[in-house]
Amino acid sequence: MHKFAATACAVAVMGGMALSGSPAVAQSDTFVSIGTGGVTGVYYPTGGAIQRLVNRGRGEHGIRVAVESTGGSVFNLNAIRQGELDMGVAQSDQQYNAFNGVGPFEEQGPFEELRAVFSLHGEPFTVVARADSGIETFEDLPGHRVNIGNPGSGQRATMERLMELYGWTEDDFSQVSELQSSEQSQALCDNNVDAIVFTVGHPNGSIQEATTTCEAVLVPVAGELIDGLVEENPYYAYTVIPGGMYENNPEDVRTFGPKATLVTSADLGNEVVYTVVSAVFDNLDDFRRLHPAFSTLNPEEMVRDGLSAPLHDGAAEYFREHDLID
Ligand code: GLU
Predict the structure, then answer these.
(1) Domains plus CATH for the chain?
(2) Could you tell me the pTM of the whole model?
(3) What separation in Å is there between the alpha carbon of 28 and the centre of ligand 1?
(4) Distance, CA 112 to ligand 1 centroid (Å)?
(5) Phi then psi for 87, rounded to 5 degrees?
């Protein structure tokens, strides 16, 4: 047990490189690092769920997953490109942007080796405001103190896209902050900001914290500009955060969002990816029970929706064998 904790820590420090030379690790173990997000989001427990299902079979396949909390989608995609992470969770819009070298990835250019593994839960673009702020819709944000997300997060990238769409700059807000997802609910309840944004599956700990600690309210993101965005981009869909899911928020709230996806690089071996995919797909009922945001996952959508990069060969092999793709 102690040995394993020390090993997991070394993996995190090494950025997920295989540690076959380390005395604490059996020679046969292959380490696979998965980059996630802040600890109160859904990416972190998503990584944990994959880790649990893969690692319980490590006696047979020798593959061991290590999960890292990170700054989010854009960070994960860049770290995979640099070989610092093996796999990562990323929003479908940012998967598209990285593969095509647009948006936050314009400078780096297209990441041609990026590979999709499968998609997961939907991630509504979620805006939460203080009840005393007077903010009732997304269009009310100008003039207020807004946390636009840490650089590297998916919500920051989506928010920047929306600001461009609405013709806003940071100067349109009375104050802009860049807090991590795990810090922003407290900032909202401490009255340091009026509104926060988070592209995230539901329910999650962060929004639960904001709605129970200080009666914060979910704000709709809808209208003609959003209609155009969703119609033009297949990686977005309309979505509703159900009324009653969070305290003090009895009504459905309309918004839109990407899907969470698992991604990697063509450099990761087919056998490793095949093993990770089988651990999840062979045990999908167990997987769905590991987080409430997974309850509606179905395999047909997971191999199809939100995947802009080509499927990794190891994933495609599993999906073909199970008649999920042609
Ligand atoms: N979608 C967020 C991001 O890309 C993370 C959401 C989560 O932590 O569940 O940074």
Answers:
(1) 30-121+260-321 (3.40.190.10), 125-257 (3.40.190.10)
(2) 0.92
(3) 33
(4) 23
(5) -140, 170
